[in-house]
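Your task
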Amino acid sequence: MSIKELVQSDDPVLSQACEPATADDAELAADLVDTMNSLEDAVCLAANQIGVARAVVVYKGDDEKDHVLYNPKLLMGLGPQKLVESCMTHEGESRVTRFVKAKVSYQELVDGKLVARKKDFLGWEAQMVQHMIDHCKGKLV
């Protein structure tokens, strides 16, 4: 188990676009899961939040399982809504627009190789994944 420290909100790694992830980032993904699960109230985390500018994100799904997405990209969104979000590496709350339904492409590690996937996310999961995609783009809330 490898729990990492979260970077501070003024760390420049948070505002730079992440490099594409590869299958070699499996250990980074494991560190993200361990770190997310060690933090009270954490439900999602991006690699740049632990200081690594790679497009790897994790979230705890509605099924209570940990999910890892490599190189996530928003393909389409439906039902924009205004929300207030908080973030583990940003003080205070921010007003954002998120889609109720989000179609996302990403990669999943299967037998040591990244495999392309697409998924429709709804509601809370859609909001979390969009938040993490913003982190990968270096977009601060």
